[in-house]
Design brief:
Blueprint (H helix, E strand, L loop, with lengths): L13 H6 L27 H14 L3 H10 L4 E4 L7 H7 L8 H22 L9 H23 L23 H18 L12 H14 L3 H13 L28 E5 L19 H5 L2 E2 L8 E2 L2 E4 L1 H5 L7 H5 E3 H8 L17 E3 L21 E5 H14 L4 H14 L9 H16 L5 H7 L3 H4 L15 H7 L10
Parallel strand pairs: 3-4
Antiparallel strand pairs: 1-5, 2-8, 6-7
Helix pairs in contact: 2-5, 2-6, 5-6, 6-7, 7-8, 8-9, 8-14, 9-14, 14-15, 14-16, 15-16
């Protein structure tokens, strides 16, 4: 049975959010006491209850914009930008690698991803209440989403509390310890194994996850643990499925349209987070927007000209990142906008905000997610409809290449996958092997994935972060601090991450 409300267009009602027992902006990583008398005794009694609850879980994905923009700022790819060196101070601190446990923006990542874990767990906790056609697919989606949110939390904060049997309840921070990384990874793998076994090859509705998405995410989870053989196996399942191809390599598709609206949910997208511009948003709860807030925040300050809308000037690619592309790489100018060249070409005008030499204006913007002129409603800076391609097929090819190469499994096949991505970018094939091939994969991964929030974590997981990120301290900055209020809620049950 298809979900009755299209995820792309759905607006979660307050009653549905309440029915899942968690509000959007709370003090703890879990809030209970659902209002309106809706709880597990009165809910999950009909098929519609399960579908609405699943929609509520998907809805949390829209907060992913925080993870993406901050993942770029934390790396060597981008400066924080903004109006000044104190604009969104939490981002500025991360850019300087001077963040502390008191950081509202890091707290957002903790709160919203735990909200996603909570909602998915609520669905799974009530898995056996009733039976209906399509329930295994629905439960598999909930397992996938819980794994996705937990993986984000693990990437950002290291060991986290887990509760396989159901939801967290108020006060359990004082009794449930932070699980080890290996325990969290095992929990994620378990969820994704269930999802892979039970998800459909083709999504029952646009925006819902598929078997390929579960295989790709599981392959990524294995790669982060240097489980190269397991990673290669899962990622090659995606490649051999025949369900995906590189956008721009077949028919009349243009590479420079990859991140335009016309390419959303294309055959290159393995897992895509849906946004819409049909509902306005406000600064009182940015994560409540149905639009992709990252887009407006990444826009050109005071812009007047063709193609783009103005924005707030955050997440500014550095000159070093722009110049890191090989000569002739088609990805360079479709990924990064040189604003001075663009203004000279089109007559566009713009303003410069933050001029701090560490976090300020660079002359470049993240073209992949610049706001385009459109008919979105509400505040144009907060309701942009650009979807986020959380896992692209090019990403799968590059991860598979890395696993095959670094695992000493098959350099020839690794080169083949890498060269597929390079060919789309207009570059000559490489013939490297061994460590030289590894370095080439790293270089192309940066060029292919720039602006999409992966760079910081790629550097950390491969042990190269201190080499490339100014201010990075090995043994500390691989993870971010647990928010101070969470440490306080735990009342001594959780230790803070080292160095914070």
């Amino acid at each position: 049975m298809m979900m009755k409300i299209n995820i792309k267009k759905n607006i979660i009602l307050a009653a549905i959010a309440a029915s899942l027992g968690i509000t959007s902006c709370g003090d703890d990583y879990v809030e209970v006491d659902p209002p309106y008398g809706i709880n597990s005794d009165s809910y999950f009694t009909t098929e519609d209850d399960y579908y609405n609850a699943l929609i509520g879980t998907y809805d949390i994905l829209q907060s992913t914009y925080v993870n993406v923009i901050l993942g770029e700022i934390a790396s060597d790819n981008a400066h924080a930008g903004g109006e000044s060196a104190t604009d969104v101070i939490g981002w500025q601190q991360v850019d300087r690698m001077q963040h502390t446990p008191v950081n509202d923006n890091l707290n957002d990542i903790w709160d919203w991803n735990f909200a996603g874990v909570y909602r998915a767990s609520f669905v799974l906790e009530n898995a056996d209440n009733i039976d209906f056609e399509g329930k295994s697919q629905l439960l598999a989606e909930a397992h996938f989403l819980r794994a996705y949110f937990n993986f984000e939390l693990l990437k950002w904060f290291g060991p986290i509390p887990i509760k396989p049997e159901g939801r967290f309840t108020l006060g359990e921070a004082q009794t449930i310890p932070r699980a080890s990384k290996s325990e969290v990874y095992a929990f994620i793998e378990q969820d994704l194994a269930y999802a892979e076994e039970n998800l459909a090859v083709d999504a029952p509705e646009v925006g819902r996850v598929t078997k390929g998405a579960a295989q790709a995410l599981l392959g990524k989870v294995y790669l982060y643990q240097d489980k190269f053989s397991e990673a290669a196996t899962e990622l090659q399942k995606v490649i051999s499925s025949g369900k995906y191809h590189l956008y721009g390599t077949q028919g009349n598709e243009d590479y420079d349209n990859l991140f335009e609206y016309s390419a959303e949910n294309s055959a290159e997208s393995v897992f895509e987070i849906q946004y819409t511009g049909t509902q306005g948003a406000g600064f009182e709860c940015l994560q409540c927007s149905e639009g992709n807030v990252m887009v407006g925040f990444s826009g050109i300050r005071g812009y007047a000209g063709p193609v783009f809308e103005s924005g707030y000037g955050f997440n500014l690619p550095t000159a070093e990142a722009y110049n890191s592309f090989e000569d002739g790489d088609l990805r360079q100018d479709v990924s990064v906008l040189d604003i001075e060249a663009w203004a000279a070409e089109t007559g566009a005008t713009y303003n410069i905000g933050n001029q701090d030499e560490v976090t300020g204006h660079t002359g470049y913007y993240n073209r992949k997610y610049l706001p385009r002129q459109n008919d979105n409603l509400g505040d144009a800076n907060l309701t942009q409809p650009n979807n986020y391609r959380a896992i692209r097929y090019a990403d799968v090819l590059l991860m598979a290449a890395e696993a095959l190469n670094r695992g000493g499994i098959d350099d020839a096949q690794a080169r083949a996958y890498l060269n597929m991505v390079r060919d789309r970018a207009g570059l000559a094939p490489v013939e490297d092997s061994g460590a030289n091939l590894t370095e080439q994969i790293y270089m192309d991964r940066r060029s292919e994935m720039i602006g999409e929030g992966h760079r910081f974590f790629d550097l950390v997981r491969t042990g190269r972060a201190e080499q490339f990120i100014d201010g990075f301290t090995t043994g500390k900055n691989e993870v971010f601090p647990i928010p101070l209020e969470e440490i306080q809620f735990a009342q001594g049950n959780w230790d803070q991450n080292a160095g914070y």
